[in-house]
Amino acid sequence: MFTSVLIANRGEIAVRVARTARRLGMRTIAIYSEADAGAMHTRVCDEAHLIGPPAARESYLDIAKIVAVARRVGAQCIHPGYGFLSENPEFADACASAGIAFVGPPASAIRAMGLKDRAKAMMAEAGVPVVPGYHGERQDAVFLKQKASDLGYPVLVKAVAGGGGKGMRRVDKHAEFDAALASAQREAQSAFGDARVLIEKYVAAPRHIEFQVFADSRGNVIHLNERDCSLQRRHQKVVEEAPAPGMTAKLRAAMGSAAIEAARAVGYVGAGTVEFIADGSKGLRADGFWFMEMNTRLQVEHPVTEAITGLDLVEWQFRIAAGERLPQAQREIAMSGHAIEARLYAEDPHRGFLPVAGKIIAFDAAPDVRVDTGYATGDVVTPYYDPMIAKLIAHAPTRAAALDRLAAALAQTTIVGPRTNAAFLIALLQAGDFRAEKFDTAFIERNLDALVAALRTPDKAAAARGVAHLLDRSRRRPARADEEPVALSPWDATDGFQLSGARTVAWPAIVDDQKMIAVVAFDAGGARVTIDHVAPDAAAKVFENGEVAYVIRGGRQTVVDLAGAAGDHAELASGGGILRAPMHGKVLAVLVDKGAQVKRGQRVAVVEAMKMEHAIVAPFDGRVGEVAVEPGAQVAEKATIMTIEPEA
Ligand code: ADP
Questions:
Q1: What is the pTM of this model?
Q2: Helix, strand, coil fractions of the chain, as percent rounded to 5
Q3: Rounded distance between C-alpha atoms, residue 570 and residue 285, angstroms
Q4: What is the pLDDT averaged over residues 171-198?
Q5: Candidate of 199, 441, 445 to mutate for ligand 1, largest count of ligand atoms within 8 Å of Cβ
């Protein structure tokens, strides 16, 4: 076995590889870009070496730099993880030239599987079923269109150099072919520098089922069962599970041997994944699956296979790269229970799944599941790399129990700061048809509106909890350490304005960039906050950062800002702010005089309307200009109450 490894990757996979390497007694060597200084993968390794600027091209993708570091520090092998250089044959060659073992397949196998058209031709020759289609050299539009028409619509146009769903177009009608071809070619040219495409039949109700294979350098090849990765968004996997729902022992044997044949055909060594597409329209069938591609590396979703087999796939990778035999034979591979993985991303499902960056204010992962992550509290999600924060993997005796366990874990996981897709994942795991095993690769797209519907409406129970927390907090201590308590709180308003008996105060708040009015009712029992009659959820978790509360509830984050809402009734004019009445009502109190110094968030007047008090607060630090009203006066909606001039 090796005694040292350089891990040419970052994030959760670098951390995960280091865990096994360390258990095997290896010295672990991390590399990092400037954007990853201090990142978790550098902390868990024995040593870490800076290799360049944030841009991946100048760091994690720079073959010469990485190999130079490996030589300099005396790394015996390099583990590439997934992504970055993991499927780059030049990298495998460069490692070999430097006398460093590459923990992956031979460069020749990577090359053979690198182009979809050649890989498909080779697989067809090896007797592996491939999707009917045209995988040849001719690329003129008229010819390709004829091929599409011969196959029968719908067809899929795919870039031969493709990956990540790029350069791929589904075409449903003959009339739409030319436009789809042109756009696939354009995208392929710009993404891969290779405009060539292939045409294949679009499989109905497609299920993505892949087989984990392992081969050693003595010609032994086995498979470790399948994974179902049909839940995808834009051809990217979101949730993966093992075994595949609806899989039979007979079909598993058939697909498993096709996967083994595929690996043999390219002289494969190490861990690989053979991806098939299966026609799920009438249930999985032995004549209804076809080779799609082979990924010549460890997959993101390998933990579900580890869960059901009880094996450590990274350990196997190291053993095989070190020249050992496969640790087990095919018949020894166990399979127990059901495992399911969800990819937790820093992204905003509510805004088209836009990636988000930022500091993780708190990260508290749920128990009961395996959590693979490259982040902890205080770490920063930067905009330079894939925004996946963690993978959560649940393992249970049955599929239903695994789904429940994962959904519960996502609901209990606390990530504060960057918004995540946790609530979306929970909705997915709870979707009736998915639980009933009625799904295909278009499931998410078809149900997207329903899956994100709940995220479109504000979480008022969380918002109310945030308001209650901030009001309570401002009573307890100053907003900032160097500051006197600001009279934000009706509990102890220092402005001397108090009414006897029950009071109800309307308090403006900004909830996820949206204005809301919280209603705070005071009576003998204390204060109660509601928003549109919705009370706070006491079970929600609240974190504060500066003057803002982050409320985590059901995998969803709601950000509440009271001070930011202070200017709610202010109209910011050139010279300062004009404070206006929020609605028709009666001035109950004017709390400051002309010329008085006021602080941002300080109450300056109180207007009663609709049987409620509305606090008028200063939008910024400043001095009171004109006061336009007196206590007892009736004011119309938007009537000027006073003006505030900002502090110079
Ligand atoms: P990429 O390498 O760009 O990820 P793949 O060939 O692996 O492209 O395909 C990605 C996804 O596209 C698959 O997981 C599947 O959901 C869908 N897909 C691919 N080929 C077909 C097909 N012939 N019919 C229907 N769906 C397909």
A1: 0.86
A2: 30, 30, 35
A3: 67
A4: 94
A5: 441
